Amino acid sequence: MVVAVYWLAHRRFMAMIVIVDAPVTVLTLVMLALVTLIPAAARLADLPGAAPPVMLVYGDLVIAIGLSLAAT
C-alpha cells in the first residue's frame, strides 16, 4: 500500500513536469531506489522483538522518500 501511494504521487508529479533534465532524472532515480527499500524495512520491522531503532529506520526511509519527491 505504501509503495502504491508513492507511485501515484510520483506519477502526479511527473505529469506536471515540463522539462526533464539531469537533476530531475537523478532525483527520480533516488526516490525510486528508496521506494525499493520499503519491503526490506517493513520485513525488519515485522521481525519478532523488533526494537524501536528498526522502526526509526523505516520512518527515516519514509521521510527520505518524501524529501526526494519534494525536491523533484
Question: What is this entry, summarized?
Answer:
By secondary structure, the protein is mainly α. It has helices at residues 2-16, 22-36, 38-45, 52-71.
Which percent bin holds the helix content?
Answer: over 70%
Helix/strand-derived category reads mainly alpha
- What order do the SSEs take from the amino end to the carboxyl end, as H and E? HHHH
Shape: elongated
**Uncertain spans:** none
Number of helices: 4
Distance between the termini: 22 Å
The whole-number mean of residue pLDDT values reads 86
How would you name the oligomeric state of the polypeptide chains in this document?
single chain
Main sheet characteristics: none
Strand content: under 5%
Radius of gyration: 14 Å
Structure summary, number of beta strands:
0
Describe the SSE topology.
Layout: H1 2-16, H2 22-36, H3 38-45, H4 52-71
Helix pairs in contact: 2-4, 3-4
Describe this structure in words.
This protein has 72 residues and is mainly α. 81% of the residues lie in helices and 0% in strands. It contains 4 helices and no strands. It is elongated, with a radius of gyration of 14 Å. The protein starts with a helix and ends with a helix. 6% of the residues are buried.
